Amino acid sequence: MEGRRDTGSRRWYWLLLLPFVGLLIPPIYAHEDPELFGFPFFYWYQFAWVPISVAITYFVYSRTRTREAPSGRAERPPVEAEPGRPTPGDGS
Prior knowledge:
Layout lengths: L16 H7 L17 H24 L28
Helix pairs in contact: 1-2
Protein backbone atom coordinates (compact mmCIF):
# COMPACT_ATOMS: atom_id res chain seq x y z
CA MET A 1 0.00 0.00 0.00
CA GLU A 2 1.35 3.38 -0.93
CA GLY A 3 1.38 6.06 1.75
CA ARG A 4 1.38 3.55 4.58
CA ARG A 5 4.28 3.65 7.02
CA ASP A 6 6.24 0.45 7.45
CA THR A 7 6.14 0.05 11.23
CA GLY A 8 6.26 -2.90 13.54
CA SER A 9 3.30 -4.32 15.34
CA ARG A 10 1.59 -2.08 17.87
CA ARG A 11 1.38 -5.01 20.26
CA TRP A 12 4.95 -4.27 21.40
CA TYR A 13 3.61 -1.25 23.31
CA TRP A 14 2.09 -3.58 25.88
CA LEU A 15 5.62 -4.24 27.19
CA LEU A 16 5.74 -0.65 28.39
CA LEU A 17 3.25 -1.57 31.10
CA LEU A 18 5.74 -3.88 32.86
CA PRO A 19 7.55 -1.12 34.79
CA PHE A 20 4.24 0.36 35.90
CA VAL A 21 2.93 -2.95 37.14
CA GLY A 22 6.23 -3.77 38.79
CA LEU A 23 6.48 -0.45 40.63
CA LEU A 24 2.92 0.69 41.24
CA ILE A 25 1.99 -2.29 43.40
CA PRO A 26 4.06 -1.77 46.59
CA PRO A 27 3.05 -5.04 48.28
CA ILE A 28 5.27 -6.77 45.71
CA TYR A 29 8.40 -5.14 47.12
CA ALA A 30 7.49 -3.64 50.51
CA HIS A 31 9.85 -5.71 52.64
CA GLU A 32 13.49 -5.62 53.68
CA ASP A 33 14.76 -9.07 52.80
CA PRO A 34 16.69 -10.09 50.75
CA GLU A 35 19.39 -7.47 50.98
CA LEU A 36 21.79 -6.68 48.14
CA PHE A 37 25.11 -5.02 49.08
CA GLY A 38 23.52 -3.91 52.34
CA PHE A 39 20.50 -2.30 50.66
CA PRO A 40 17.04 -3.53 51.65
CA PHE A 41 14.95 -5.16 48.95
CA PHE A 42 12.57 -2.19 48.98
CA TYR A 43 15.30 0.10 47.59
CA TRP A 44 17.27 -2.11 45.24
CA TYR A 45 14.13 -3.54 43.64
CA GLN A 46 13.00 -0.05 42.64
CA PHE A 47 16.48 0.92 41.48
CA ALA A 48 16.76 -2.26 39.38
CA TRP A 49 13.75 -1.11 37.38
CA VAL A 50 15.66 1.92 36.04
CA PRO A 51 17.92 -0.03 33.61
CA ILE A 52 15.17 -2.58 33.00
CA SER A 53 12.79 0.22 31.95
CA VAL A 54 15.44 1.71 29.68
CA ALA A 55 16.01 -1.66 28.02
CA ILE A 56 12.27 -2.26 27.56
CA THR A 57 11.76 1.22 26.13
CA TYR A 58 14.63 0.82 23.66
CA PHE A 59 13.40 -2.63 22.65
CA VAL A 60 9.87 -1.36 22.00
CA TYR A 61 11.25 1.62 20.08
CA SER A 62 13.41 -0.61 17.89
CA ARG A 63 10.45 -2.86 17.10
CA THR A 64 7.98 -0.08 16.31
CA ARG A 65 10.05 2.62 14.60
CA THR A 66 9.61 3.47 10.95
CA ARG A 67 11.72 1.14 8.85
CA GLU A 68 12.28 3.39 5.84
CA ALA A 69 12.74 7.10 5.44
CA PRO A 70 9.38 8.73 4.84
CA SER A 71 8.79 9.44 1.17
CA GLY A 72 7.37 12.68 -0.14
CA ARG A 73 9.48 14.95 2.02
CA ALA A 74 9.62 18.36 0.51
CA GLU A 75 13.06 19.40 -0.63
CA ARG A 76 14.21 22.85 0.41
CA PRO A 77 14.24 25.20 -2.53
CA PRO A 78 17.69 26.63 -3.27
CA VAL A 79 18.45 29.96 -1.67
CA GLU A 80 18.73 32.69 -4.26
CA ALA A 81 20.83 35.72 -3.47
CA GLU A 82 19.51 39.21 -3.90
CA PRO A 83 21.44 41.39 -6.30
CA GLY A 84 24.52 42.81 -4.58
CA ARG A 85 24.43 40.32 -1.69
CA PRO A 86 26.69 37.28 -1.48
CA THR A 87 25.13 33.83 -1.59
CA PRO A 88 25.30 31.79 1.62
CA GLY A 89 28.36 29.57 1.75
CA ASP A 90 30.44 31.25 -0.96
CA GLY A 91 32.88 32.69 1.60
CA SER A 92 32.37 36.35 0.69
